[in-house]
Design a protein that fits this description.
heterodimer; A: 118 residues; alpha+beta; 4-stranded mixed β-sheet; B: mainly alpha
Chain lengths: 118, 407
């Protein structure tokens, strides 16, 4: 990390998630913070997936968003995070963390076409 | 090892982006209606697109993050989503117009009926995208599009009065709404946001890395879009010489092709047609990719032609769906030139929301370190944000008042 402290909303929220294989596997759609009022709070996890970003759009559009993108919500515990530079690097492959499940489903569709692995 | 002449990305981004169907329509129309008077609007838009493509390329090289990755983080999810939806609508309209333009040029060249060529044109585009590696798409469409230099030759061949051309470079305004509509059209056609979506993603596809490739980025942005501007000005000059004196308003793509024939004969027509075919075909691919890049980057999906189709499956499905949607739109029989005008004018709404985050991130040392914007880039960037804001506000009323430039 370039610095000791960083602004959550400015740097972490919406950051791209890059797994240990260098693959893009989502974005930080929400941040889970733990701690009681009056005592120190810390980041427990980052949340990714349509169910997380649906909460950030107007209420009337949420049903349409979940029909279009599904209701997946993946919780990536903070100890699975390796580093934050211009993106958020993860310690493990995205599949192990349950990320980018839509990518696998789409890949099964695409691999039926000739030349899809060239 | 990358050579200094690795400028295919800049050429394709500019030939397919700057000199696309929208620019051909607006530049030829501007020359036919107003002679040389509107050349300054092209110069204005070239400086703008060079400024922002260089910035977006630099941001992509330093942070490995192309435009839509940055849009969401700096504008927030809600405003980012608005930008995404707006630019996807404009992208798919532009894609429909460009792919329709491909069918139109082929139909004019071989005297075949245009509607029968639509499905084959889309099929060919899909196959080219599926099979061809990114580097080859750039080279084939970028370099073949260079046949458009025929317009420069044609313009020079007519010995235009350089004093008048020079006077056209000096900005001046008229009260005529049609004149203002063409100013807005030329500036917007040159600054269409898909150009930077494509260019910045292309920089990541080409694996440009700091610091060595920053120079390559500057050269690509300046030479590519500079050349695009010269070709645009040639179109204006040619239309000013050929169509302006006889009062023809070219409402068809074919008329733009005939301009080169009037100056250079059959050879001019052939080169101009090939140039337009590949420029418009390249623009179709630009817009198709730009749409898929934008959605994938906004949602954090894997993307890119450098992965095989299965390796970025959602990205692949997205460009296929976009091509399909564009085919449906153009198959309704709507004129590609009309869609183009609406797409260009519609794009100005997405302009500020696309260019502002580029400027903010490029000026932010947290992201850019020592490659942060210098004073000139920052100043130019803010001047253009002001210009873009004015253009964005003026575009829709002018479209309505002038009935899309027809007076």
């Amino acid at each position: 990390m370039r610095e000791d402290t960083f602004a959550l909303a400015y740097r972490l929220l919406d950051a791209d998630l890059i797994d240990s294989d260098g693959r893009r596997c989502g974005r930080v759609d929400d941040i889970e913070i733990e701690g009681e009022p009056g005592s120190p709070a810390h980041v427990a996890a980052v949340l990714s997936g349509p169910a997380a970003f649906s909460r950030r759009i107007p209420r009337s559009l949420r049903p349409a968003a979940s029909r279009l993108f599904g209701k997946v919500l993946v919780r990536v515990p903070w100890d699975a995070v390796d580093d934050l530079d211009t993106v958020l690097h993860l310690k493990r492959p995205g599949e192990e963390l349950g990320l980018a499940s839509g990518e696998a489903a789409a890949a099964r569709l695409i691999e039926r076409l000739p030349g899809s692995e060239k | 090892m990358k050579g200094y002449l690795q400028i295919a990305l800049g050429i394709l981004a500019a030939i397919g982006g700057f000199v696309d169907i929208g620019d051909i329509v607006f530049a030829t129309g501007a020359g036919a209606l107003f002679g040389y008077q509107l050349i300054w609007a092209v110069v204005l838009s070239v400086i703008g697109i060079v400024t922002f493509s260089e910035m977006s390329g630099r941001v992509a090289i330093v942070t490995q993050r192309p435009v839509f990755s940055v849009v969401r983080q700096r504008m927030g999810f809600g405003l980012g989503l608005v930008t995404l939806i707006g630019s996807e609508i404009v992208n798919v309209l532009t894609l429909a117009a460009e792919a329709g333009g491909v069918a139109l040029v082929i139909s004019l060249l071989f005297n075949v009926s245009y509607p029968a060529l639509l499905a084959p044109a889309f099929l060919i585009l899909a196959l080219v995208i599926w099979i061809t590696p990114f580097e080859w798409i750039e080279k084939i469409f970028g370099y073949m599009g260079l046949c458009l230099v025929a317009y420069l030759v044609a313009a020079i061949h007519l010995h235009p009065d350089l004093g008048n051309v020079g006077a056209g470079v000096v900005p001046h305004l008229h009260t005529s709404a049609t004149y203002l509509y063409f100013v807005v059209g030329l500036v917007a056609a040159g600054l269409m946001p898909y150009e930077v979506y494509f260019y910045s993603s292309g920089a990541v596809e080409e694996r440009w890395k700091p610091p060595g490739d920053l120079r390559l980025n500057r050269i690509n942005a300046t030479l590519g879009f500079g050349l695009g501007g010269i070709l645009s000005i040639s179109l204006i000059v040619l239309a000013a010489e050929v169509f302006h004196p006889i009062g023809v308003q070219p409402a068809f793509l074919g008329t733009a092709m005939l301009g080169a024939q009037a100056s250079l004969g059959t050879a001019g027509l052939v080169f101009a047609s090939i140039g337009i075919l590949f420029a418009v075909g390249g623009a179709a691919i630009d817009t198709c990719f730009a749409g898929a890049y934008s959605l994938a980057q906004f949602l954090g999906w894997e993307w890119g032609k450098y992965r095989h189709p299965r390796g970025a499956a959602r990205f692949t499905i997205t460009w296929m769906v976009l091509l399909g949607l564009a085919l449906v739109i153009i198959s309704t029989g709507v004129d590609p030139v009309i869609i183009t005008e609406y797409a260009v004018i519609g794009s100005v709404v997405a302009l500020p929301l696309s260019y502002l985050p580029i400027l903010l991130v490029a000026s932010d040392p947290t992201y850019m370190g020592k490659h942060v914007n210098g004073r000139i880039s920052t100043a130019l960037g803010w001047v253009y944000m002001a210009i873009i804001a004015v253009v964005a506000v003026a575009a829709l009323p002018l479209l309505i008042i002038t009935n899309a430039g027809t007076g």
